[in-house]
Specification:
Helices cover about 30% and strands about 25% of the residues. It is α+β, with helices and mostly antiparallel strands and about 160 residues long.
Amino acid sequence: MSGLRPRRAWWILLALGFLSLGVASFLAFSPGFRLAPPTPFGDTMEVELAAGTHAVYVTPSNRWGDIDCTGTVPDGSEVQLRPDMMLQGLLVPEAWDAQGSFVTDTEGITALTCDGPVDGGRFTVGPIQSFFDIGGAVAVGVVALVLLILGVVLRAVRPRPRS
């Protein structure tokens, strides 16, 4: 018999749906698990970073505009923290708000200090989570839901074997 038999199609759709759901979850939540250990406001964090763009995240940020971050990148120049309207906060495993991003041209130790009038404030450095990353995760999540719904529908309406 050539072609896919309908009684097998539903579980293939369910498997693809669950796989897509896993990919969407990874895209949405993995940056939160790749953060440097948090540092209290006023202290200096020294973290080894690869060359590229990195984000600074703070919590809590109820006075976002009053938080100031300074530091040096591996080549000795000052951190040029730039606000980025596409930069999104992280929600898992803890809520972090994006403060800005900076670029390092070389791999090495970056020293960073953030301070502001926020009681119990902490900061960390991690990967960029942009609006487009969230949009991609949502798009994959929608595909996952469509595949799961189709799989359930096919399972429910599959022809019963004759006795």
